[in-house]
Write a structure and sequence with these properties.
five-stranded parallel β-sheet; alpha/beta
């Protein structure tokens, strides 16, 4: 955990601080708490900040970007939804998509069909959900077992050991050898192009910023081998594991202190 790190030493030479979203900056589908928004906004005035999430841009906007403080430096924020397959920057007073790498139509249809078939076979295609189960995000297909709008408490109770998600991801992966299927959020799995994960996002980010991977601090809550933060944590970034948004606030306090005197 981060308490084992000397964060003052960790930020030396750092060019970007990158964050996961769900259960790192905010609870699933919920806006950042104002205390977190304050820290995030302060960091943007000290260093480039990236938001790397498997979710779509609209969620990144409602959970993070829309609740920033007025004096946040939006020009220093790099928004990389759907695991970096899309990239947004603040330009001329609004968030603009600078690139988008979508899956082809046939792959998206195959992914949707496979997810539904295996979810039904495994007994996790529920009759009643909170909103759509499957979302076509263009560059990524996402299955949410309880629906996209499920309450946070219900989502956190559904699969606490990740066994349901991992079993579904493994079955769907057999059907889609040319794509990558991975466990996503608390009730979800994501399907994307091979080689597209948060490591891909970090590498793209480094090319854009003009830095090396070891100059990126990456903060996330799922750095276990089955977690979607794992690829970014093992490629040479400076990874910081947190247990939730409250923990992230404490990390940010330390990072702000270190950056303010560096």
């Amino acid at each position: 955990m981060w308490r084992d790190h000397d964060l003052s030493a960790l930020v030396k030479g750092t060019k970007v601080i990158a964050f996961d979203l769900d259960n790192t900056l905010a609870r699933s589908k919920k806006p950042m708490h104002h205390d977190m928004a304050s820290r995030f906004s302060t960091l943007t005035r000290l260093i480039d900040v990236a938001l790397i999430t498997g979710g779509r841009f609209e969620l990144a906007k409602s959970q993070v970007l829309d609740v920033l403080e007025p004096d946040a430096d939006r020009t220093r924020i790099h928004v990389m939804p759907t695991s970096g397959t899309r990239y947004f920057r603040w330009r001329q007073g609004r968030w603009r998509c600078l690139y988008s790498n979508d899956l082809d139509t046939a792959d998206r249809k195959s992914a949707i069909a496979s997810i539904e078939r295996h979810a039904r076979e495994q007994g996790i295609w529920l009759e009643h959900t909170w909103g759509p189960r499957i979302e076509d995000r263009g560059s990524q297909i996402t299955f949410s077992a309880l629906g996209q709008e499920a309450p946070v408490d219900a989502k956190e109770r559904w699969d606490p050991d990740n066994s349901k998600k991992n079993r579904l991801a493994k079955a769907v992966g057999v059907d889609l050898p040319d794509l990558v299927v991975r466990s996503g959020g608390s009730t979800s799995i994501d399907v994307s192009a091979r080689g597209v994960d948060k490591a891909y996002a970090v590498r793209r980010l480094c090319c854009i910023v003009g830095c090396s991977v070891d100059q990126v601090v990456f903060i996330g809550d799922r750095m276990d081998p089955d977690g979607n933060d794992y690829p970014a944590a093992i490629i040479g970034t400076k990874p910081i594991l947190v247990s939730g948004p409250g923990d992230t606030i404490q990390v940010c306090n330390r990072l702000i202190e270190a950056l303010s005197v560096s």
